Amino acid sequence: MRGMTRIPPPVTIPDRLIDDVEEHIIRDERRWTGVVRDGGGVSRPLLILEIAGELVAVRNRCPHRDISLLRGRLDADRCILECPSHGWELPVGGADLRGAPVVERDGRLYLTARVWTGPGTGGTGGVRG
Ligand code: FES
After folding, report:
1. What is the number of the ligand 1 atom nearest to the C-alpha of 69?
2. Cα angle vertex 44, ends 38, 46, to 5°?
3. Does residue 109 line the site of ligand 1, with CB under 6 A?
4. Of 88 and 14, more confident
5. Which one of 16, 109, 122, 124 has the largest count of C-beta atoms within 10 Å of its C-beta?
6. pTM of the entire predicted model
């Protein structure tokens, strides 16, 4: 029809499988590490935290010196992860530590394409095991 603008369908980005998942207990909290791989075989290290019953994945590297954040202290009420090396306080879901909800299906974890900005913005919580 003339004069009508076609609106393209929304692009759906599929959830991505998280590989090499390992569970850790850090100060009585369960956390997971894993990697997501892109099509070119490049791996990105993830740290999965449980905040207010939701699972949220962040890049498992401190923006200061590129070390693992696994052993960082988590203040879940403030959504702050403190780097274990020099103590930088990193807001989970902030510019340096963007988060994405993680979903569990059939015993495997998947990284979603959504943006996590705080409790109630999209995780599912609950990893079996
Ligand atoms: S390496 Fe994280 S604050 Fe320095």
Report:
1. 2
2. 130
3. no
4. 88
5. 109
6. 0.86
